[in-house]
Amino acid sequence: MVTAGMRNARSILDLPEFNVLLFAFLVNYPWEFLQVPFFAGMPTAGHWDAILFCTRATGGDALIALAGYWVVAFFWGNRYWILQPRLPHLGVFIAVGIAITIVFEWHATEIAQRWIYAEHMPVLPVLGTGLLPLLQWALLPPLIAWLVSRQIGR
């Protein structure tokens, strides 16, 4: 017997937004831990402090992915674009993530001084933005889109 609660849970699980958040969190979490050596003080931070920092960063990554998803949905007028993403969709999805990352990294490193890049973090010459955070948004959005399309499109 299928209850109303089960139908509601199923409908939430089928929402593209829920899946973008879920898979963005899942693929960005390991990336955040892999970046630890490239941020000053992170390799020597306390275990739980580092986990909390990476978890918060991953939550931000998931929200950036959701923002990118919504921008694409707005411009194409289709929330389900992610079921069959085309190159222009992915280009905008990636571009939004990169743009937000440039602004956020600049603010975090220059204005708020929330973190400092380690000496061996490659940075873009003019912007000073770390290359690894930018690569994150060039490489992971297509994977997120693929995972979401596989999950919802079953």
Task: Explain how this protein is built.
With 154 residues, the protein is mostly helical. Helices cover 69% and strands 0% of the residues. The longest helix has 30 residues, at 47-76. The mean pLDDT is 93.
Helix/strand class: mainly alpha
- Beta-strand content: under 5%
C-alpha end-to-end distance: 22 Å
Structure summary, number of beta strands: 0
What sequence of helices (H) and strands (E) makes up the elements? HHHHH
Main sheet attributes: strand count, strand direction, barrel closure: none
Mean pLDDT: 93
Shape: globular
Figure out the total of helices. 5
Q: Helical content, roughly? A: 55-70%
| Weakly predicted, low-confidence segments | none
Report the radius of gyration as a whole number of Å.
17 Å
